[in-house]
Amino acid sequence: MTKLIPSLQLHKRFILTLLLLFVFIWSLTSVHWNAELYHAGGIPTMLQIFEGLIQPNLDLDILMVGLESTWITLAYAVAGMSLAIIYAFIVGVLASGSLTSSKFSRIISKVVFRGILGFTRSIHELIWAWLFVAAVGLSPFAAIFALAIPYGGILGRIFADMLTDVPEQPILALKSSGSSRLQTLVYGYLPLVWADFISYTMYRFECAIRSSAIMSFVGLGGLGFQIQLALADLKYDSVWTFVFFLIVLVILVDSWSNFVRKGLTDHKRVKGFGTGWFSVLFSLLLIVGSWVYITLAEKANLFELLSEKNLEYAKKFFVGLLGINQENPAFLDAESWSTALMLTLETLEMSIMAIGFATIVAFITVIPAARNIANGSLTLKKSWYNWILYGFIRLTYIFSRSVPELVWAMMIIFIFKPGILPGALALALHNFGILGKLWAEVVEDMDPRPIRNLATAGASKVEILFYGILPIVLPRFLTYILYRWEVIMRTTIVVGFVGAGGLGMDFKLAMSYFDYTQITLLLLCYMILVIIADFASETTRKAVK
Amino acid sequence: MSSKTMIEAKNITKQFERKIALSSLSFSIKQGELVALIGPSGAGKTTLLNSIAGLVPLHSGELMIENQPLGNYKRGKQFAKKIGVIRQQFDLIGPLAVIHNVLAGKLSEWGIFKSLFSLLVPQEKEVAIRALERVGLEDKIFEVTATLSGGEQQRVAMARLLVQKPEIILADEPVASLDPARADDVLGMLTKIVNEENQTLLASLHSVEYARKYFTRIISLKNGEIFFDLPTEKVSDELLTELYQLKEQV
Lengths: 545, 250
Fold this sequence. Notes:
The complex is a heterodimer. Chain A is mainly alpha-helical. Chain A folds into two domains: 58-316, MetI-like fold; 334-544, MetI-like (MetI-like fold, Orthogonal Bundle). Helices cover 79% and strands 0% of the residues of chain A. Chain A is built from 23 helices and no strands. Chain A is globular and about 75 Å long. Chain B is of the alpha/beta class. Chain B folds into two domains: 1-82 and 167-250, Rossmann fold; 97-165, no CATH class. Chain B has helices at residues 45-52, 77-82, 98-103, 112-120, 125-134, 150-164, 180-196, 208-214, 237-244; strands at 5-16, 19-30, 34-38, 60-65, 68-69, 83-86, 168-172, 200-204, 217-222, 225-231. The longest helix of chain B has 17 residues, at 180-196. Chain B is globular and about 55 Å long. The chains are: A mainly alpha, B alpha/beta. At the A-B interface, helix 1, helix 20 and helix 21 of A face helix 2, strand 6 and helix 4 of B.
C-alpha cells in the first residue's frame, strides 16, 4: 500500500488526462455520426464559402459600407466600455471593501457588491441586449448598456481583486500618517493598481469590439449586421470582406493595447509629450467621438428611453418573466423542466466537445507557434522552415480569434444541419486561436535552462517536448483550458441563437413567442451550467496542484 | 593514466555586441584533470563554459575536443557522450519525478517510443537506481524533483551525469546557491565521481577556497583574458588579491 501511493502520486496527472479524455469522448457520443449531419448541398456551399475567402468582394461601395460599419462597431464598443469602466470603478471599489472601516461593514459591502458584479457578468452580453430590446425596444442604448453591464461586471471583479491584493504596508503607513479613507484610496490603493487595471481594460476592449460586432443580431447596425445581410443573400465574397474588416479592427486594437501595456511595464520616464499621453488623448478623442456620433447620427436619446410607454413595456416584460398572473408558469412545470434539463445536458456536451476540439488543434500547433522554438533558442535546433511555420500558425490564430463564435456559427450552419455539432465547431473555431496564443505565451515565458540542459544531454525534439516542456507547462495549459471552458459555457447559449442547438435555440424560440416564463426557466438552467462549470474547473485545478 | 588532450582552445574570442567577453584565450586540458575556473563576476567564466558546450558560437579561434574541432561533433548522442553539463539546480525539470530526471541522461541513446513509454513505466530502472545510490538518494526515486532541497537537486543532476557518462563534465557554478556544508558535500562527491570514472572536469566557481580544496589546477579569468593558469599549489594569495581587485591598475 505504501508503495502504491507514490506511484499513484506519480501518475496523478496521467490519470487526470485520461479522465478528461474520457469525458471528451463521452461528449462525442452524443452526436450521431453519419451523413445526416450535413445538408445535401453542404459541401458545395463550403467550397463557395472558401472561394469567397480567397476572393473577397473588393468593390468600392462594399468597401465604403465596410468602413462605415467598422466605425459603428468601434463607436458602440467605445461607448459601452466607457460606461463599463465607470460602473466597474464605483462598484469595484465598494466590493473591495477598501473604503469601509469596520470589519462588519466590510463583509456586508463585499458580499452585496461582489454579488451584484457576479450576477451582471454571468449573463452574456447578447442576452442582456435581447432583454433590453424586449423591454425598451430597439435603441442604441440597448446595445451600449448590454455591453456595459457584463463588461463592467468582469472589470469590476478584477478591479476589486486587485485592490484586495494590494500590499498592506504602504496602506498602513498612509493610515498612520492620518489620511482619511478617501485619501488612502487616492494616494495608496489607486496608484498601486492602476497600471494593471489599464492593461486589463485594454485586453477587455479588444473583446468588446467582437461583442459590439455581434450586437447586430438583436437588430443594431455594424459589421455583424452586414455579415448577416450578406450571408442571407448568399454573397460569401462580401461576407469575407466584412470579416476582414473585423479582423483588421481587432488587430489594430490588439496592437494598440500591446503598445500601451509595454509602455506601462517599461516604467520609462519620457520627457515632454510621451506616448502614454498620446494614448490618453487618443482614448478621450475616441470616447467623445463615439458618444457624439451615437447621439447625433444614431439619434440616441436617453430620455426617450425612459418614456412612459417604455416603462410600461419594461414592467410588462419583467412581470412576465416572474410569471405573475400566469396560469401555468413554465418554471413550475415538471415537463418543461425535464425538456429544459435535457437541453442543458446537450449544451454541456456541446461545450465539452468545443473545448476538446479547440484543445486538440491548439496542442498540435502550439509548439511551432512559440517564438523561442521558432528561433531555436529553447531547443538549440534551428530549421529553415521554423519561421514559416511560426508565421503561418500565428496568422491562423489571429484569424480564428478575431471572428466571433456567432459569425463562425452562422457560416457553419450553411454546411451542417442544426444540432450540437455545428455549435461545438463554431465555438472551437473561435477558441483554438485564443488557447493557442495563451499557450504559446506560456512556452515563451518558461525558464529555458532546464530545456537547454536536456538538449545538451542529447535529447531529440520530441523527447524535449515530453521530458522538458510538457511537464512544466501542462498545469498552466490546463488552467487555460478550464478558463476557456467556462467562457465557452457562457457562450453556448449564443451560438444556439442561430440554430446551433442547445439551450440557446430554445431561448430564441421562447423569445419569438413571448413565452416569458420559459425564458426564466432557461435562464435558470443556464445559471446551473455556469455553477457546474465553476465547480468542475475549481476541483480540477486543485487536483493538479 | 593516459594523457590525451581533451579540450584545447586556440585564441578563442567572443563578443557580445561591443563588449568583449573572451579575448583570445588559449589553453589545453588533459584527460583526468580537475580544473577550476575562477575570477570576478563578468570575467567570462560562463561564456567560456557555454562556448565549450556549443551553446554560443565563437567569433574567432578554434576549440578542439579530443583533437577534433567542436563543430565536427553532431549534436545528440555523439556530443552527449563527449560533454555533459551541470549548473545550479535550475537545470532539472521540477514537476518530473527524480527517476525521470536521472534517466534523461539516457535520452540520447533511447528512441522516441522507449523514452515516451519510460514516462509511464521507467526503463532501465537499475541504471538509475545505481546512480542514485552513488549520490545517496536511493530513497527519493519517485519524489517530485521540485520538492527536494537545493543540495539534493544538485545530487540528482550528478546522478544524471552518471547515467549520461560524458568524458568531459562542465560545471557552471555548481554550488552557487548552496550553504557551505551542502557545497562541500556536492563538490566532494562530484570530484570523487570524476576521478573514479576517469573523466575530465572544468568547473567555474565563485569561491577560491573550494577551488583550492578540490581542484588540481586553477585557471583565472579577468576581463575576458587569462590572468593566470597554474597548478593549485602554485596559486599565491597575492595573485588572488590582484585578481579580485576592484580598480584597474593603469
